[in-house]
């Protein structure tokens, strides 16, 4: 029996790339071949030189179709085999390989918001706003929680696909949720996050709901959506000096601007200094501090080892870029 391989890739939409996919029927026992697509329809090529190449980089069972069917995350190459300019994975993999001896790993908290009929799920049908935020975070009950059936289904799909999903929770605004992937090394953690995002969009489709990674889906007194990125190296998992060196390294000259520029479009509108964020232009770190750029969890201070949480990345960030920046900055400082 041939099987269905869903080839998934990241397009060239600016400022925030989107996921695309199409299906290839593959003969039983055959390798997953290199494939191609029309780059002129994805902001990746002009019409007269439209061919782009899809190279499989991460394969897992397809939990939507089941059976022997597969999800095949690809990187995009030019026809000469070099990485396409929109391919951020290649550089991430290069930097991760360079510092692999330090054993860096990541846990990424992906926040997102369900929308239906142009408003967040749980916002009143006739327009206007629900009760102010406060009761929704990790809430329970039909007046507090919206979309749990989709979230439960998504969690099952991620586990069936073999992704390193480590948890889910309802967030601060109605219709807003989070899942976590990790701890896993780069670039795999980012591969898994992109596949988990695809599964989220795909399953929400069946409920006639859309999931968005918009970092500030509702203006005003509502939390934005982030992708807090938890990071450690072998040294950080063994001693507190390495934790402090890591936290300090992110505040060094030029590093604040470099990281903010790679942490997702429209980040200035989310990192305002309000709603559990630190202002984007000022770097700070602190123990247990959810108003700092980087938080050292209390348990890490107590144990004298562990990991740090960079709270700045936006929900709409490219995890290949975020993980590449963190490995490069922190592992260079610890080398
Ligand atoms: P928060 O309290 O900020 O909501 P979460 O529980 O949502 O934290 O997410 C914490 C993430 O950190 C999880 O994905 C977890 O796997 C990850 N994590 C735990 N230990 C480490 C570590 N040593 N290095 C990197 N990530 C880690
Ligand atoms: Mn969390
Ligand atoms: Mn959260
Ligand atoms: Mn967090």
TrEMBL record:
UniProt-recorded Gene Ontology molecular function terms: ATP binding; glutamine synthetase activity
BP GO annotations: glutamine biosynthetic process
GO CC, any one term: cytoplasm
Keyword list, A-Z: ATP-binding, Ligase, Nucleotide-binding
EC number(s) from the headed UniProt entry: 6.3.1.2
UniProt keyword RNA-binding present: no
Major enzyme class: ligase
InterPro entries: Gln_syn_GlnII, Gln_synt_N, Gln_synt_N_sf, Gln_synth/guanido_kin_cat_dom, Gln_synth_cat_dom, Gln_synth_gly_rich_site, Gln_synth_N_conserv_site, Glutamine_Synthetase
Domain of life, per lineage: Bacteria
Pfam hit, one: Gln-synt_N
The GS beta-grasp domain, residue ranges: 3-81
PANTHER family: GLUTAMINE SYNTHETASE (PTHR20852), GLUTAMINE SYNTHETASE 2 CYTOPLASMIC (PTHR20852:SF57)
Described purpose of this protein according to its UniProt entry: Catalyzes the ATP-dependent biosynthesis of glutamine from glutamate and ammonia.
NCBIfam families: gln_syn_GlnII
Subunit structure: Homooctamer and homotetramer.
Protein family: Belongs to the glutamine synthetase family.
Name used for this protein in its record: Glutamine synthetase
UniProt source species: Paractinoplanes atraurantiacus
Lineage: Bacteria, Bacillati, Actinomycetota, Actinomycetes, Micromonosporales
């Amino acid at each position: 029996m041939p099987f269905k391989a869903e080839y998934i890739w990241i397009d060239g939409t600016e400022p925030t790339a989107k996921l695309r996919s199409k299906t290839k029927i593959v003969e039983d026992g055959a390798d997953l071949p290199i494939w191609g697509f029309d780059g002129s329809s994805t902001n990746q090529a002009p019409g007269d030189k439209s061919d782009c190449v899809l190279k499989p980089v991460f394969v897992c069972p397809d939990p939507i179709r089941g059976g022997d069917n597969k999800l095949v995350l690809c990187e995009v190459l030019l026809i000469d085999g070099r990485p396409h300019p929109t391919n951020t994975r290649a550089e991430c993999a290069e930097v991760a390989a360079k510092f692999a001896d330090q054993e860096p790993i990541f846990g990424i908290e992906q926040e997102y918001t369900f929308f239906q009929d142009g408003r967040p799920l749980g916002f009143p049908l006739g327009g206007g706003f629900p009760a102010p935020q406060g009761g929704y975070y990790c809430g329970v009950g039909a007046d507090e929680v919206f979309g749990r059936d989709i979230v439960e289904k998504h969690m099952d799909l991620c586990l069936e696909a073999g992704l390193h999903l480590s948890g889910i929770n309802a967030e601060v605004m109605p219709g807003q949720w989070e899942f976590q992937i990790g701890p896993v090394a780069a670039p795999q953690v980012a591969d898994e996050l992109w596949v988990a995002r695809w599964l989220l969009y795909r399953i929400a489709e069946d409920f006639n709901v859309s999931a968005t990674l918009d970092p500030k889906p509702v203006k005003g007194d509502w939390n934005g959506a982030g992708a807090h990125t938890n990071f450690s190296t072998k040294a950080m998992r063994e001693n507190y000096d390495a934790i402090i060196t890591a936290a300090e390294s992110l505040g060094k000259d030029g590093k604040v601007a470099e990281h903010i520029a790679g942490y997702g479009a429209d980040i200035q509108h989310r990192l305002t200094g309000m709603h559990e964020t630190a202002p984007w232009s000022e770097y700070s770190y602190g123990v247990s501090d959810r108003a700092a750029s980087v938080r050292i969890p209390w348990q890490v201070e107590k144990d004298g080892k562990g990991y740090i949480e960079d709270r700045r990345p936006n929900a709409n960030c490219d995890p290949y870029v975020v993980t590449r920046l963190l490995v490069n900055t922190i592992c260079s400082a610890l080398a």
